[in-house]
Amino acid sequence: MKNRILLLLTVCMATISSFAQFSFVHLSDMHVSNIPAADSDTNAQYFQCAIKEFANLIPKPSFVLVTGDISDIGNMQILGMYPTITQHLSPPSLTNPAVGAYFIDSAKTIPIYFTPGNHEYWTGFDSIHIPISNDTLFYYPEYITPDMDYVINTDIAVIAVLRSGHDSPYGYPPNPALIMGTGLSNEQIIWLRNVLVGNSSKRKIIVMHHPPVNAAGTNSDGTPFNALALDTATNSLENNRTIFLNICDSNHVDAVLAGHEHQNVVANRRGDTINENWPNGPRYVQTAAAFNRSYRIISLDANFVTVSRPMRSCSTTGVNEINNSLNITVFPNPANEKLSIRCPQKSEIEILNIEGQILKRITAQDIQSTVDISNLIIGIYIIKVKTEEGITVKKFIKQ
Question: Which CATH number fits domain 329-398: 2.60.40.3230, 2.10.260.10, 3.40.50.300, 2.60.40.1220?
Fold first, then answer.
């Protein structure tokens, strides 16, 4: 915690051009996979496709803002594949880059900003495949951006970018489905209050990885999100959550942007689902995972912050041989003993572990195949289905 305090004493002001109105892209949960072969990493390929799409949006976004879980395991150099992302940015390779040093276009007109998620702190898994989490970041500042909170400041808006922490002991164990962030330190709270008070006449946005307020929303495809949610604090902030919400109220924050849950939803403080552009207080916005091609456009003028409905990038083209539009079903998910794969045509099926090692390979002649996974340890796995029409990559949980 000492390092976090020292870093908070340095405030980075990334000031963009003065204008009366602008927009930016909110992206979260890239989860660039730890599969060594880049051509197998669907998540990284979707990111590459998405930034090309963002660079051609009309009107042109002023920047892209990513709220955490950039890599699956951020503290392992081989598995935390930050270079898989940065090779598609400009400049393609930096050492200890400054805030706002990367751009999504070669002309360097659209910067991309990052803040870490809980996966950035992961170092690996223990014997039963439960994630091991550090309380410090290692490769993230080397490849992505400094380990610090900072401000993106314009004439009409202030955007505070916060680190919401590593995994809290509340998550792993007893319940792997509940992954709290350690939250905000007292020093972060003081810093945030000073930033907001010092910019009282501006529109105010806060961004972080963990959602300060949780509510039931939808998956990227619009279907209901059915993950466990005990209350509005599920998967949220362990420390200083209520104080944070009070600060948002008292300083008239327009919106708080987050990810982590891999769902789309907008809620008020009480956890009621509200319209994206509800005018009666701070809006707590979650954007579903970038690896499912989700994003939002946030537009600002001097009077209001407009949050778009969930959007999807790269829906038809641009991802090499990956074809996730194929009608392939993997069930049940999570699974215990058997995993069924339904595919409308002959296919080759591979099951990989989180390190990218192929554990099983079968050739399926029938529409539905069953794979014995009883010998797999509890954890997250990748299933790759190859057909004549391309490759579909999905993830499943062995429980």
Answer: 2.60.40.1220
